[in-house]
Design a protein that fits this description.
The complex is a heterodimer of chains A (403) and B (408). Helix content of chain A is 40%, strand content 12%. Chain A is α/β, with parallel strands linked by helices. In chain A, the strands form 3 sheets. A 6-stranded parallel sheet of chain A has the order 3-2-1-4-5-6, sandwiched between helices. Chain A has a 3-stranded antiparallel sheet with strand order 7-8-9, with helices on one face. Chain A has a two-stranded antiparallel ribbon with strand order 10-11. In chain B, the strands form 3 sheets. In chain B, strands 3-2-1-4-5-6 form a 6-stranded parallel sheet, with helices on both faces. In chain B, strands 7-8-9 form a 3-stranded antiparallel sheet, with helices on one face. A two-stranded antiparallel sheet of chain B has the order 10-11. Chain B is 38% helix and 13% strand. Chain B is elongated, with a radius of gyration of 27 Å. Chains A and B meet through helix 3, helix 6, helix 8, helix 9 and strand 6 of A and helix 2, helix 6, helix 7, helix 8 and strand 6 of B.
């Protein structure tokens, strides 16, 4: 039932943003058919180099984070500080539907990139703003990053501690990508509003707001004065039957037994500990809870004797519920990841597969990913499309306004 | 216009009717977000007990409170219609509701949808203009299609996030209640809005959806994209064995964690030695230059750990502020709820429910509309009569449906 027309076909998006959350939102719009023009300064988006620069990124010969955050975009290099570039930008704004901007507010003021500035050029324009900490207030101008604004400031990392342990560890760009979906939602709201009223608008979100939304349950609890205690570490769990255990091959298995009365005997059999079934120390839930550390120690020793595959099969054979803590390297071979539409093929030979955005539509399929653009690869093409002559373009080039 | 402008235009989703036939968190949270922006959300729940999420606040892994705070968050703006979907009478009601609805959100596992005739192919003939939104744990096909998926298993466990979120030699990371569910809700909202846009363009409804698994993999996308080409995430050393002792976490006397981010130690080392009252270190041959400090990172850490543990965070804040040494603190929710910046970012909102006077907004901000103020969430079946009357049932019909057991 897939049709060729994508829901965002015919829309032009100017991605005047850097790093990950905002550019990733532009990627999602491009996946669904929008024409995305990435406007970069002469040095390019710093995200082009993040794989090399950040110690926390997996290293590879292919620049996979840049490919992922720039697929299906065209690159135009404009030095937004030069007045000549401004004239070209205004012509682009006049023909665009959406602009995505994540400069800190003082830079927007200086470069005349606020909504008020752009609205004058095109009142039907949708202006999508991403900030670290919001559009006003004492920390308005602070550059916000995923790890500082989404994870640390929101209280997420503090809450993700084991009792007595250090704060949790966020994955690279984990909060940025979640935030991208809120930014996409806000842009789609504005498109509905424009369809109803004919007017453009300002929409936006912040990394801090998204961090708190994702931990909304505990944030809402905090608002009524209730706080989550830190989780006990796996060697002294509240219950040994709802705990994680390492296997002989250093994998982790998550027991998630809720119906203890039914599953106690099958669990003991799966672990090949039949003597435990009628052991008076662990006869009923109350005893097992009281002696949870003792029981967890027995389980820990047992799980450490066999590899993950053995336990997976043994627990499944006795219909004991458990969760798998997959490793990132398991994703490429997980058939279900393809069925879920998460892993898709690309048209990029050196990176044949990538991650689709999580939106699925019965009536359309996401565009296949083509190679991310080289810096300024489409400058001439785009300037030509908005009506600049070859002479004008070379004039801009020699002035340094475009590249 | 700025986001602080008082909006006077109608909410963008006003006039839309949403049937929330879903339970727990990710899918209901998407319905709540649509309600925030003006949609009329009718929650269809089993009679008597309703959505089991009404009892989540008793869950041992939730913060303990006698107030039903999670239900406030995910039940806001909704009207409750209690229907026993297994009965014929309920089917009659559902079909009439479907004819008038714009969006339907469902998260039953596929076998239950089939049994209850709630698949898109069952619904499309009733209302081809409907946007049918599906949430699953693991996708619509494949070997794990029918597994019930939860945030902790599908979004966090299966996607590799928890494995990646560990310190070298330590256990997997900890996820918070519904953390992945709520992020997934934003994807559902985007999917539904895409469906509405397409309906505006073509007059046709359609199937839209997402899965917890795909959202987890998307959030873990940088690491997963690396894995797809065989690149492996470096394991993070724990704070007591850092690669660089000057860009590391230190625990303070009052159990706060201070993030020291001294990237320019070439310029700031002397200043730092003064602040920690250890001028002797400047002459210590182990730490004279950057290569020496890197080579002796463990020794430097062992020396700094008791220094930071000797003072409270507020004291360190005073000492480090204005010195040019970048530092931060791992925030606590207890502070966030009173954080002035969170107010500016529009993160919290007042409600009209005296038991739970403040709540958490969606992260979506619109210059032309503010989210609706939340009142108390509904009791199970609170709006049965009201919704049935609106849908065109007569009093006699409503009585008959009640007697038939369709409403429990």
């Amino acid at each position: 039932m897939t049709e060729t027309a994508l829901p965002l076909a015919g829309l032009r998006v100017l991605d005047i943003s850097s790093f990950i959350a905002a550019p990733a939102a532009a990627v999602v719009l491009g996946d669904w058919g929008a024409d995305v023009i990435k406007i970069e300064g002469p040095d390019g988006d710093a995200n082009r180099k993040i794989m090399k620069d950040s110690a926390n990124y997996p290293k590879a010969g292919v620049n996979y984070p840049w490919e992922m955050d720039s697929r299906n975009k065209r690159s135009l290099v404009l030095d937004l500080k030069s007045p000549e570039a401004r004239a070209a930008l205004d012509r682009l704004l006049a023909t665009s539907d959406i602009v995505i901007c994540n400069f800190p507010p003082p830079v927007r003021d200086k470069l005349k990139l606020t909504y008020e500035d752009m609205k004058k050029v095109n009142p039907k324009l949708i202006y999508a703003s991403l900030t670290g900490y919001g559009e006003s207030g004492p920390d308005r101008d602070r550059p916000g990053f995923d790890v500082t604004a989404y994870f640390a400031r929101s209280g997420l990392l503090e809450a993700q501690r084991y009792e007595g342990g250090p704060p949790g560890v966020p994955g690279p760009a984990q909060g940025d990508r979640a935030t991208a979906m809120a930014l996409v939602s806000s842009i789609l709201m504005a498109l509905i509003h424009r369809m109803q009223t004919g007017e453009g608008s300002w929409v936006g979100t912040s990394l801090l707001g998204n961090g708190l939304w994702s931990c909304g349950v505990i944030a809402q609890a905090a608002l009524v004065g209730a706080f989550l205690p830190h989780r006990p570490p796996p060697d002294r769990p509240r219950t040994a039957l709802g705990n994680i255990y390492a296997t002989a091959d250093d994998r982790w298995l998550q027991l998630t037994i809720v119906r203890e009365d039914k599953l106690w005997a099958p669990l003991c059999k799966a672990l090949d500990l039949p003597a435990l079934i009628d052991d008076p120390r662990f006869a009923a839930i109350d005893e097992r809870r009281r002696r949870s550390a003792e029981l967890a120690a027995i389980f820990r020793e047992t799980f450490a004797t066999q590899p993950y595959e053995h336990w997976r099969a043994a627990l499944a054979a006795h219909e004991v519920t458990f969760g798998v803590i997959s490793r990132p390297q398991d994703i490429p071979d997980d058939v279900q990841a393809v069925h879920a539409g998460a892993v898709v093929e690309t048209a990029i030979p050196e990176m044949p597969r990538t991650l689709a955005n999580p939106i699925r539509l019965g009536f359309a399929e996401q565009r296949i990913a083509h190679a991310a653009p080289a810096l300024g690869q489409h400058t001439d093409e785009i300037l030509g499309e908005i009506g600049l002559s070859t002479e004008e373009i070379s004039g801009l080039r020699s002035s340094g306004a475009v590249r | 216009m700025s986001p602080q402008t008082t909006p006077d235009e109608p909410l963008p989703l006003a006039g839309l009717t949403v049937l929330d036939i879903s339970s727990f968190i990710a899918a209901p949270a998407a319905a709540a977000a649509l309600g925030d922006f003006g949609a009329d959300v009718i929650k269809i729940e089993p009679p008597v007990d309703g959505d089991p999420h009404r009892n989540s606040f008793r869950n041992a892994s939730y913060p303990q409170s006698d107030r039903n705070f999670p239900w406030q968050l995910d039940g806001r703006h909704k009207r409750s219609l209690a229907l026993d979907l297994k009965t014929d009478g309920a089917r009659t009601i559902l079909e009439r509701l479907l004819k008038r609805a714009d969006v339907m959100i469902v998260n039953f596992p596929p076998p239950a949808r089939e049994r209850l005739r709630l698949r898109w192919e069952d619904i499309e003939p009733i209302n081809p203009r409907l946007v049918y939104c599906s949430l699953t744990g693991y996708g619509e096909t494949g070997p794990d299609r029918d597994r019930p998926g939860f945030d902790i298993t599908a979004y966090f466990g299966r996607s590799g996030i928890l494995d990646a979120a560990r310190y070298d030699g330590g256990p997997p990371g900890v996820s918070l209640p519904a953390q992945g569910d709520r992020a997934t809700a934003m994807t559902l909202v985007a999917a539904i809005l895409m469906g509405l846009r397409r309906r505006d363009q073509t007059g046709k409804g359609g199937w839209v959806g997402t899965s917890l698994y795909a959202n987890g993999v998307w959030a873990n996308g940088t690491t997963a994209a690396g894995a797809l080409i065989g690149a492996q995430l470096p394991v993070r050393p724990p704070p007591d064995r850092p690669r660089n002792a000057l860009t590391n976490l230190y625990r303070t006397k009052d159990d706060r964690w201070l993030q020291l981010l001294m990237v320019r130690d070439d310029r700031l080392w002397a200043t730092f030695c003064g602040i920690i009252e250890r001028p002797d270190l400047m002459a210590d041959p182990r730490f004279t230059g950057r290569p020496e400090r890197r080579a002796h990172a463990q020794e430097l850490h062992d020396l700094l750990e008791p220094v930071f543990a000797g003072r409270r965070y507020a004291d360190w804040e005073t000492r480090l502020s204005g010195t040019g040494i970048p530092f931060g603190v791992i925030g606590r929710l207890a502070d966030v709820i009173d954080d002035e910046q969170a107010e500016h970012a529009g993160i919290f909102a007042d409600t009209t429910n005296p038991a739970i006077p403040r709540t958490v907004n969606t992260p979506i901000r619109l210059g032309f509309a503010a989210p609706r103020t939340a009142g108390p969430p509904p009791e199970v079946g609170q709006h049965n009569d009201e919704v049935l009357r609106e849908t065109g049932f007569s009093e006699a019909e409503i009585d008959a449906l009640k007697k038939s057991g369709a409403l429990g």
